[in-house]
Amino acid sequence: MGEVIYGQGKPVDQIRMAMAELANHHPVLATRLSLEHGRELARTFPSGHLWEEAGLFCLGRNLEAADPKAPNSDLLIVTAGSTDLPVAREALGVARFLGLSASLVSDVGVAGLHRLMPHLGTLRQAKVLIAVAGMEGALPSVLGGLVKAPIIAVPTSTGYGANFAGLAPLLAMLNSCAPGVGVVNIDNGFGAAVLAKKILDGYA
Amino acid sequence: MGEVIYGQGKPVDQIRMAMAELANHHPVLATRLSLEHGRELARTFPSGHLWEEAGLFCLGRNLEAADPKAPNSDLLIVTAGSTDLPVAREALGVARFLGLSASLVSDVGVAGLHRLMPHLGTLRQAKVLIAVAGMEGALPSVLGGLVKAPIIAVPTSTGYGANFAGLAPLLAMLNSCAPGVGVVNIDNGFGAAVLAKKILDGYA
Amino acid sequence: MGEVIYGQGKPVDQIRMAMAELANHHPVLATRLSLEHGRELARTFPSGHLWEEAGLFCLGRNLEAADPKAPNSDLLIVTAGSTDLPVAREALGVARFLGLSASLVSDVGVAGLHRLMPHLGTLRQAKVLIAVAGMEGALPSVLGGLVKAPIIAVPTSTGYGANFAGLAPLLAMLNSCAPGVGVVNIDNGFGAAVLAKKILDGYA
Amino acid sequence: MGEVIYGQGKPVDQIRMAMAELANHHPVLATRLSLEHGRELARTFPSGHLWEEAGLFCLGRNLEAADPKAPNSDLLIVTAGSTDLPVAREALGVARFLGLSASLVSDVGVAGLHRLMPHLGTLRQAKVLIAVAGMEGALPSVLGGLVKAPIIAVPTSTGYGANFAGLAPLLAMLNSCAPGVGVVNIDNGFGAAVLAKKILDGYA
Amino acid sequence: MGEVIYGQGKPVDQIRMAMAELANHHPVLATRLSLEHGRELARTFPSGHLWEEAGLFCLGRNLEAADPKAPNSDLLIVTAGSTDLPVAREALGVARFLGLSASLVSDVGVAGLHRLMPHLGTLRQAKVLIAVAGMEGALPSVLGGLVKAPIIAVPTSTGYGANFAGLAPLLAMLNSCAPGVGVVNIDNGFGAAVLAKKILDGYA
Amino acid sequence: MGEVIYGQGKPVDQIRMAMAELANHHPVLATRLSLEHGRELARTFPSGHLWEEAGLFCLGRNLEAADPKAPNSDLLIVTAGSTDLPVAREALGVARFLGLSASLVSDVGVAGLHRLMPHLGTLRQAKVLIAVAGMEGALPSVLGGLVKAPIIAVPTSTGYGANFAGLAPLLAMLNSCAPGVGVVNIDNGFGAAVLAKKILDGYA
Amino acid sequence: MGEVIYGQGKPVDQIRMAMAELANHHPVLATRLSLEHGRELARTFPSGHLWEEAGLFCLGRNLEAADPKAPNSDLLIVTAGSTDLPVAREALGVARFLGLSASLVSDVGVAGLHRLMPHLGTLRQAKVLIAVAGMEGALPSVLGGLVKAPIIAVPTSTGYGANFAGLAPLLAMLNSCAPGVGVVNIDNGFGAAVLAKKILDGYA
Amino acid sequence: MGEVIYGQGKPVDQIRMAMAELANHHPVLATRLSLEHGRELARTFPSGHLWEEAGLFCLGRNLEAADPKAPNSDLLIVTAGSTDLPVAREALGVARFLGLSASLVSDVGVAGLHRLMPHLGTLRQAKVLIAVAGMEGALPSVLGGLVKAPIIAVPTSTGYGANFAGLAPLLAMLNSCAPGVGVVNIDNGFGAAVLAKKILDGYA
Prior knowledge:
Eight copies of one chain form a homooctamer.
Chain A: E1 3-6, H1 12-22, E2 28-31, H2 35-44, E3 49-51, E4 56-59, E5 75-79, H3 85-97, E6 102-105, H4 113-116, H5 120-125, E7 128-133, H6 139-144, E8 151-155, H7 167-174, E9 181-183, H8 189-203
Parallel strand pairs in A: 1-2, 5-6, 5-7, 7-8, 8-9
Antiparallel strand pairs in A: 2-4, 3-4
Helix pairs in contact in A: 3-8
């Protein structure tokens, strides 16, 4: 299906070499790229696709292309606030790289139910949801009361002070009063997309 | 207005003596009483009023009496789940002891918006809200998007595992995406009621 | 499908009343019961089924009955050590209560790969796995390299000292090098079974 | 009343665009600005007002203008030490942006009661107090014994070592022996001002 | 000068044997005794002195005897609240056992400066102070602004919720804005008295 | 005696202005200076004394001058490893600024008793000791068994990994098996010197 | 060589059955037994050997028998204080069960070097050392400077307050300034003995 | 055998001077060098050997030279992922500096047993293993079930979010279900090599 290279903390040369080698056989995706590393890869591989806001660079697929099924995607990624977008976009890009039909509903945090409710139809149509939230991390709990599909919760390190770099939403999600929420590591958009892929593969 | 004795961890004799002494001059309230201590005080002071479910014993006032203004109380105490009730009742009893018009809406956690929404009128009528929640502690965030009144958030130690005895909802409440939430200590129904009293005193 | 009552920390009278009321309409399951509470419920409702080792009491279904599809169940629950069994049995009983075909493979912790490997066929046949582990919580990582199905990870509070009541396996599971693991709260067999139900419902 | 943009961690372009759009309809305030971002906004919007020490930039109001009612303001912001000033100024600027009558008493930490006591008249005149403190976070406790008005406590990340970036004063404030203190997140001057606004709106 | 036996968690037989052996040569003090252990020692050694409220049993000295120099003692032990008294009494008893002139001022927590201020003369006369406080642990900071003598701070595990069994006052004391406070372990009245002894020995 | 300005995190202009103002009346000491800030102050005040390794700049005294009484100083500062030296030097400089007779014995960590033992005479001659240690923070415990004088323990943030920026030695020092050790905040050489000053003032 | 059953938290019936089954083929050791469980096993298996102070019960070997090689044992277990003895005895009993020549030196904590030093010859003769310590956990660091053999460090949960149930010595041991110390879990005497066995097996 | 200088956080001048002085008598190794410091040392001492990827610089030995005994080395260093390599190389280089026969097997994390199993012969031949792993830190547990030799576990700070800079694998390793694992500090390749040296010295 393709290979994924985790880019954080790696020298750009190492990523470049790995991409060149793997791209002979498969599509390749590099994640967690800094702006500079992403742009350097784009110069090396002009045929590739760089999605700066998601920290992704891909050879062999276009991650940002509109999903023809949207807003009826199998996978719906939902975010609480605009600062959660980079993680949500990582999940979205990885999901598309893995061949999923996926789209994004953003900025529907729980203090603004009036922004969430108009999306209820879309939310209920998705087969799997990924809820991305920092701050108090309550989005999966509210969603869990509204939809029947499995929910994958991604805490983000958005916030300050007693957020403790994502600990607050992580604990909140693990303690969700909506049963049946599966939690992944803080900022782990990649892992959420892989779990969604595994669930959706079972449906096929 | 009355005196309050914090009963937790104190020998019942010490509480009894303090009550006897203070009751000559004021109404007196003892909080955080175990079932045994509460009943022993009720035997000593037959004219007093014991509210077992709230851990309260009072000389000189009846804490459980229906509030004549309810459901139009100045102070509305809202709970997420039924396990939050002991803390909510402590807040309710203390509020009434302090002379406030207060009532309680319970079991309206964020995974059940359909249970919360019918109370919207009542919620918006209150001058101050106390939101009591364990688990992921999201109730104040949702309320903060629905009402304009100040919200006092009380995390409870309800939960297990990664709840860490109330740490999860405490952090969630401190990180609420609804600005303007004031948080008190875990299980501190008493402190929430006192803060409500101070705010409402300013309105008078 | 049935109603579930969380029994931990609740007085037995409250559980009994709730069961009596709900059982008129649905099967009812009470979870997290102490031995005494479970036996008291069994005396009150002689037609019910008590599973002591799982802390479960059920009216209207038999949770321990051998699954006719086993070992080809849709849901496979896998445990690292024998001290993880109570949580695994909670997951198993809840899954059966929810109507899932579920079975259990136990005592296949990662320090004994020779005990895990003979189950490889069974592991690969399941549509969803629940991995229950205390100590270092490595079971989901090893399973993630062996099967393609989604894995739900349940850390248990088994252990002592630097286990910190389940914190060690919780963190390990959130950091699994096998991507696509969804984690639930410490000891939360119930939540794992509900998530499995949601995923398997999508397959139907 | 106006719109507020949280500026921390956002690219200056994003803040600039949001300000331009919102300023057509309302006064707009950007918070948590770095020095560079603040100055860049001031160059873009020469009619705006930059308060560097508070990390604030405002279109449509002057935040630093002397409050005509001072020192008889409705809201009094009190700080323990001079390193708490940026957070206190954020609270002050936001309060004025929200239309409150607000002023500031600074450097009256609890190890210098002789500096605090001369302000007793001013302290007792305010309808709401915001106490801003790092280090051991004791200011709200001392104030709580001196005034009857509600106190909003803001821990700051001032300090080093076992301060743990504001954890020490946060815990101290949650454990205040003066009942009726509402705590907000570490360094959250904005949230404190919003809570003060909600309380004071009730008085009007 | 005498021997001290730390009694917590030890079987009473082991304490009894140690006392019997040591008492031949020196005064002996056992600390951290449960009520039962204390009373059992008192039955074994009728000439000994049991101070139940301090968890102390002593052979060869009377710990509770009024100090002839009080209130002009060299060492003054000051407590914030009445729940801090057991730890304060441990410090007082140990100090007297070590031969110090020591007395106690209690219930002068920082939310009640009007209760603290009348003791100012006594406070300023002491050569060393021990400040015992739970909750927000602010007492040493306030004292540090009022006296010149060295202050030994003892956090207590008094409190609940976000007190985390004494962590809150421990951190507060380590972060005191009054420089020159020496902190000992939570509830460690014994250690505080020994440090006072070492300091006062230097004065002699 | 002089004024001290805490320099960490403050703009150099603010420190400069404060020094200029205070220096008219007293000796002034600035602490926690970065290399750049220290050198900038030295250029502004050529008569001042900069001690780079200690992060100190002083007007009106020379902090590094050999102590005429050494090695028979009243105050002895002892360090475990060479990485603890900056904190130890801060303590030494502040002590001299405060007028104490103070000297330093370094690199005598507990894994090298053969390096500690030759200093036994010097150690036993001091009236007060400050023990500065990172890593496992065991130095005060070993010293406590060798000398009778009061010991002030300063944990340092030296170390990595499970040191958690000084938490490891802080906890070790609070749990010292040598009773009578007073602990100050991590890296708080200043506070240790002030406490030594208060103790030694009592001896005078 | 024998089988080991971890007894903590297991019903005595389960342990009894496991022992009966395994004892047909090997010596069997049960660890972490409560007093009651140990005595119940001793009644069931009168030929077995119960070591109450170590929480051990053994079929087929005598764990307490004096080691003929002592004090020249291959393995030397060293403890800081008397409260560390139960863990040290677990290590000693397990080591003997595993066939090692092992003995014990106790109560040589680092605040009493004069008690440690007389054992220097014995310490230097051992091929492997196990250092058991609670409180500040400094013993392995001091030993590491005195002997060349590998040191296995066992933190114990002895202590109170900021000991945090063994966290303080655990962190201290991980940060030992003596390189080459291998740490096991808090109170894990069993694991330390097994590691010693593995090392000593290599010497044979 | 040689001297080792810990280079982290030290000015390059200090390292250079120490190396120059010590190199007259012994081989010298500097560890934890930044790229710049390493290269600067290489310019100063052209006869030395810089191993950039390991942060090591050595005078008097070549650390990277192929081990003539490999893959039958006495010490085998095993890593889970490629990001663990810097720590593993530090261990390898230090081991060789200390004169050990040591080699490295990398990228055999527990989610890829098919990559680990081909090395089984090599793993079982080693006399001591060092297992280096970040993420969930499960490698020592799996190895412990496969080999009989003692295992030294090194957690690395590889990872993000709930990894908490190495805390997750540290706790996992301390809780390993494979008994007999000795753990060193996070990223402490040096300490692991020294412990291996002490163990192997006993075999000689």
